[in-house]
Amino acid sequence: MSSERIQAFQARAEQALEARLPAAGTLPCRLHEAMRYATLGGGKRVRPVLVYAAGEAVGVPAEALDAPACAVEFIHAYSLVHDDLPAMDDDDLRRGQPTCHRAFDEATAILAGDALQTLAFQVLATDTAAQVDAARRLRMVELLARASGSRGMAGGQAIDMGAVGRELSLAELENMHIHKTGALIRASVLLGALCQPQVADADLDRLDHYAKCIGLAFQIRDDILDVVGDTATIGKTQGADLALNKPTYPSLLGLDGAREHARALYEAALASLEPLGARADTLRTIATWIVDRAR
């Protein structure tokens, strides 16, 4: 049942994203085409699904979760566009198709990323379906901003760039990914839960710990797939991290050590959900998928 819920949430997210993106024919057309290209028609929608699943775990109806689900995916899509740029990872392939700057041009890709970032906050600030008061909405905007900025995702990317060619300790590597990948995953879970006005602080803490664990496990699996996956399956260039001499979990722990570390994080994530009972089954299924996925 939970896997079917995930598929339903993925489909719901796709429709919600489509509805909130500017139409391709709206001026400036090329920019809007690039925004839609970067967002639609691909991707695992992990972050929106986490919003829906966390909301489900605390009794929030799906229609109240569309705005935060879209907001985190717009931030994620913008980050991928900018990560792929020549000044960053200089990648040609994303989600099995040419990266945004290859399909359009570098300047348009930069602007598309900028516009997706600001659209995320517009949607989160103005959508009326989320039944939250102004104070709670402001808290959600602040949470997403912090997770996206220099103390979150952007900061993690800066640490990543500075780490190229260096050997990091496990603590340093995890600190980088807690920011680069984990911050937005944690925000996704908390945004879903915060749409429940009566959510208990203890449940927020449990969900945050779950999200911290699966955020790191997600990155470990990405690092493993960069070594053992193939380009056609993972949808991006296999071996890119190795070619760029980036520090990764397999380079530090070996493949078996990286797998063991991901499994330990998975077990810790599941343990944090125990008090939530069956309501958190979709979150459990997501955790299983994260450590076993092939792309």
TrEMBL record:
State the Gene Ontology BP annotations: phospholipid biosynthetic process; terpenoid biosynthetic process
GO CC, any one term: cytoplasm
| Name recorded for this polypeptide | Farnesyl-diphosphate synthase
Stored PROSITE patterns = POLYPRENYL_SYNTHASE_1, POLYPRENYL_SYNTHASE_2
Task: Provide this UniProt record's keywords sorted from A to Z.
Answer: Isoprene biosynthesis, Magnesium, Metal-binding, Transferase
A Pfam cross-reference name: polyprenyl_synt
What family does this chain come from, according to its entry? Belongs to the FPP/GGPP synthase family.
One MF annotation (Gene Ontology) recorded for this entry: prenyltransferase activity
Kindly list the organism's lineage. Bacteria, Pseudomonadati, Pseudomonadota, Gammaproteobacteria, Candidatus Competibacteraceae
Q: Write down the InterPro entries for this protein, in alphabetical order.
A: Isoprenoid_synthase_dom_sf, Polyprenyl_synt, Polyprenyl_synt_CS, Prenyl_diphosphate_synthase
Required co-factor(s) are:
Mg(2+)
